[in-house]
Amino acid sequence: MPRPSHDEPDNALVSRLVSRRRMLALGGAAGAGALSWAGAGASAADRNAAGAGTLDSVKAAAAETGACMSLTTEQIEGPYYIDYELFRRNVVEDRSGIPLLLVLRAVDSATCRPIRDSAVEIWHCDASGVYSGYTEMGNGGGGGMPPGPPPSGTPTAPPDGTQGPGGPGGGGGGHATPTDDLTWLRGIQMTDHQGFVTFRTVFPGWYAGRAVHIHTKVHSGGSRTSDGYTGGRTCHTGQFYFSEDSVKATVDVAPYSANTAARTTLDEDSIYPGTGTQGGLLKLVHDKRHIERGVIGHITMAVDPGATNDGAGAPGGGPVPTGSPSPSA
Q1: For the whole model, what pTM was predicted?
Q2: How far apart are CA 168 and CA 197, in angstroms?
């Protein structure tokens, strides 16, 4: 697959990878009732939409954390990673769902100092449990069947902890072959001087076999160039999770209410290590009576910037060293 380095400073257009007939304004809605969060990381629009001072408070609390922390748990990449390097803050494109402002911070696990000018990448499914790039595979809950067998055979336990053929997780023993060139809910950002990145996205849905989650990678030691993120290594591969209460609050909200796939709880998930923040559990800020108004999810990732963790190991198995460094393994 190609590796474009598409920047969108004004969030005007979707990536050039999207077919012309599907070109839409990124500045549009994230669904009916969506908050008008701007794509900029800590912009006035973000702060206003999140509530007066809420976003600033979230970032200030994270930045003032003085105690050093353990390494954030390494987790598997899963079969649906695509190395697009789409540099953008707003990853919504045409997806509907509850607005989610994702505030992420990367710090050195040994010193707790922010890791500046590193690259943080996210990708996740939409409200119906479908990943861009893999729409023909559906969501395992009536959303369609994969067009053929997994590229590496059909193991008894797929690498993403899902049910195998019939939806996400049917990627066999490794990376699944994309079925389309769509790019929604995928993006990458460079950390600021405090180690922060902010993404505008939507609350993920679910598919059979996995709790609601977002994938992430942190890249260190390289730099952003006209060709994308060059040099360095993938120092962390992980996943973010949502509290059971927050997920339950979404099930009667459109378009989540139309998702008929069996839902897996955190306790049932085969990948989530059950260790709270260290295992990727997000801290959430939202109106508990009206989650449809939007959510702020935030977490600090404590990583080893000199390590190489490409997500190829067993779930929750700790750092997985690889041979040679890669910018987006």
Answers
A1: 0.77
A2: 27
40-61: per-residue pLDDT in tens?
Answer: 334 444 444 455 467 788 888 7
Phi, psi (5° rounding) for residue 99?
Answer: -60, 135
3-state secondary structure of 122: strand
Nearest Cα neighbor of 6 from 180, 179, 189 is 189
Of 208, 146, 210, whose CA–CA distance to 178 is shortest?
146
Which tokens is 42 given? Answer: 């800590």
Angstrom distance (rounded) from CA 128 to CA 131: 9
How far CA 33 is from CA of 40, 130, 290, 291, in Å, comes to 20, 22, 11, 11
CB 94 within 8 A of CB 19: no
251: left (phi over 0), alpha (psi -120 to 50) or beta: alpha
Using one digit for the tens of pLDDT, what is the confidence trace for 252-293? Answer: 999 999 999 999 999 999 999 999 999 999 999 999 999 999
Locate 284 and state its tokens. Answer: 């959430």
CA dihedral 269, 274, 277, 278 (to 10 degrees): -110
Per the DSSP assignment, residues forming a β-bridge with 239 are: 215
Residue 222's Cβ-side half-sphere holds a number of Cα atoms within 13 Å equal to: 23
